[in-house]
Amino acid sequence: MRPRLSAALAALALALFSGCTELPALPDEISDNRADLSYLELVPAGEITGQVPPPRSDERTAPDLQSRADRLRARAARLDTPVIDAETQARMQTGVTR
Question: What is the count of structural domains for the chain?
Fold first, then answer.
């Protein structure tokens, strides 16, 4: 059986069997203290979203940030080199074109 088909059948069986469960008994009435509660008041999003202060940089942190940025750029340059050297790449390509 194909993996997709078996997964679909398993999902279908799970959905069918979940319909066989008994629901818990729920009270028919709402208690008095909950019946008197009102809905929450909606607040505009502008009032509840926080304002993020701009990043602070001073004479002490700027050199640290610059050196960290330089290290990250150097690391990115090292990672940007090809993983497979040209000779191996050519040998692999001839094996594919046969």
Answer: 1
